[in-house]
Amino acid sequence: MEIGTSKIAKVAGLNIHYTDALGTGGWDFGLDFLDLFAQKGWKAGRAFEMCCGPGYIGFALLAHNLCDTLCLADINPVAVEVCKRTIAENGLSDRVSVYLSDGLADIPSHEKWDVVVGNPPQYAQSGAREKRIGKAIKFELHERIWLDEDWHIHRDLYSGVGKHLMKGANIAIMEARLGSDENDFIELIRDGGLEYVARLPCKGDRRFYYVHSRLPE
Ligand SMILES: C[S@@+](CC[C@H](N)C(=O)[O-])C[C@H]1O[C@@H](n2cnc3c(N)ncnc32)[C@H](O)[C@@H]1O
């Protein structure tokens, strides 16, 4: 696929390719994950970034040695091609895999992760309220960037991720305070055989918070 010109975001010596249409949330506020990992003392063998877009969060974790290898996935072929550009330019083909996948549907069964991160679509409906919010926060972007109708992407994650997790693996998903609270996800987490751990603050940007869950040891 020809994706045309991309821009570059630099993090710790790594050039991350992106386009504006893919969204820049992971760059604007998603790098707060670096602080979260520092606070928690997390260092992963293999990390997975769900709904990765250009992979800002995952590539930043890799660049800061907070994971050894990285798995990325997104439903948008343009996002996948941009990630491939980053992998090729930075010589990361032995450490990073990227999949075109609707949720976890096309992730190979051999993929196993110690930590899962993500800044997925954060609103479950597109009503008048969301349109009002959207005027303030860049909802002119394609709705696949922000709309997770009836939380089906989150449901897919929490119901299917267990088979890809190492025992004790942590899952930290960034959510919008205007789009949800942790109670929207706790049942989905438990139904997936996972343990809900806590709601955590996103200290770098108070519009967001994290839902922390894990696969018990
Ligand atoms: C809020 S954007 C975040 C992108 C990137 N993670 C970031 O932090 O900038 C949400 C991403 O979810 C992807 N997405 C939407 N629906 C999806 C699905 N069913 N499966 C996988 N990815 C999906 C979109 O293509 C988009 O890249």
Beta-strand content estimate: 25-35%
> Which spans of ≥5 residues are poorly predicted at pLDDT below 50?
none
Average pLDDT for all residues = 94
What bound compounds does this protein have? S-adenosylmethionine
Distance between the termini: 42 Å
Question: How many beta-strand runs?
Answer: 9
* Percentage of residues in helical conformation: 25-40%
**What fold name stands as the CATH topology?**
Rossmann fold
Number of helices: 8
Q: Which H/E pattern describes the elements?
A: EEHHEHEHEEHHHEHEE
CATH superfamily: Vaccinia Virus protein VP39
Shape: globular
CATH-derived architecture: 3-Layer(aba) Sandwich
Which structural class matches the secondary elements? alpha/beta
Q: Which CATH class?
A: Alpha Beta
| Domain module tally | 1
Strand order of the largest sheet: 5-4-3-6-7-9-8
Computed over alpha carbons, the radius of gyration is 16 Å
Oligomeric state, counting identical vs distinct chains? single chain
Sketch the major β-sheet: 7 strands, mixed
